[in-house]
C-alpha cells in the first residue's frame, strides 16, 4: 500500500507494502464549497434570526477570524459574511476583520492578505496583539484577574466569530468560545488560563486529568474559556467542521453556545474512533502547511497519534517544520529537556511553550519517535526524536524486524479515541 502524507505544501509518498496497514481515518465527508455552506448557515441559523435580519441597524460590525495556524477557508467564508452585512445596509467602512492571534505574533500585511483573500478595499483587517496596550477590560476572568480583550471586540454594534471546531490536546476543543478568549484576549490572562493544565494542589505538580482532547466538563481550562466568552458573547458564531482531507464539510451559525455544541457533536461523530487496541508501529503526519510548519503546531498531530500507540512503540512522524520550533520561549526548555526538570520549572513559573516542550519530551520518553522533517537534527535529537533522512530506510527496517506487523496510519486528518 502506498500512503501519501501531507508535507508542507506537497505530499510525501510512503511505500508500506509488506506491512499490514490499518488506516485511522475520520468518517467525515470530503470538504465542500465553504462559501455555500456558510451562506446557508447564515440564512438558516441553528437558532435566532438570520444574519441579514440581525445586522440591520447595528452600525458597526467586527468579524473575529482565526490566524493562519487554524484552517478556516477564510477567502471563501468572509465574502459570504460580508455580502449579508452589505445586504443589511452595513457600509464597508463599518466592517472590521479582527485576526485572533491569541499569543501568536503578528505576521504583517502580506501574510494577512494571503490569509483572508481579496476583500473590499475599505474593510480594515487588524491583527490582535495580546501584549498591546489598548486592550479593554470586560470583567474578571477569576478573582483579582481582570479579563482584557481587543477593543474592536467591544466597540462594535455586532460581533461575529468564525472558527473551525476541532479537538484540542488540553482545552477539549478549539474554535467556538476560543475565538473570543484566548483568541483576542490579553497575554497574562491567556497564560493564567493555560497554566490550569497543571494541578499544584499536591506535593508535586501533575497535569490535571481533565485537560484532555474531547473533554469539556471537568476541564478547568475549557470551563474558564466558556466563562470568559460569556463576558462578551458573540452575537452570532459561525462554527466550521473540516472534511476528511481538509476544507469545510459542515457549517452552523447562531448563538455561540448552540453553534459550538452542535459542531462539537459533529466533530465527535466524524473524528473519534473506538480504541480497539494499541499499535506497536504507527505512521502519522501533521496535516501539511500551516499545521506542520512548526513543532508547536505539528505536536498536535503527534499527540493524537500517540494515543493509539503502545508504550515503547515506534512511530514515524512526517512534518516539514520549515519554521523550526515555533517560539523562542521553548529554547530554555530545549536546552534541558528532562520531563521532571521542566515540570519543576513550570510549577514555579508558567511558560506556555515550556508546557508544549514538556508534552513533547514526555512522548519521546515513552515511545521511539522517528522524525522526518527539515528541523535541525541536533535540536530533534536533544528533544528525544530520532531524525530520519529517508523514511524508506526505516520502513525497510520495520519489514525486517516486524514481518507482517500491523501499522496504524493516520494520514487523512487527526482522529482521537472515542471520548467516554
From TrEMBL:
Domain LarA-like N-terminal intervals: 27-198
Transmembrane segments: none
Pfam families: Lar_N
GO molecular function terms listed in the Swiss-Prot or TrEMBL record: lactate racemase activity
Entry-linked Gene3D superfamilies: 3.40.50.11440, 3.90.226.30
InterPro entries, per the entry: LarA-like, LarA-like_C, LarA-like_N
Protein name: DUF2088 domain-containing protein
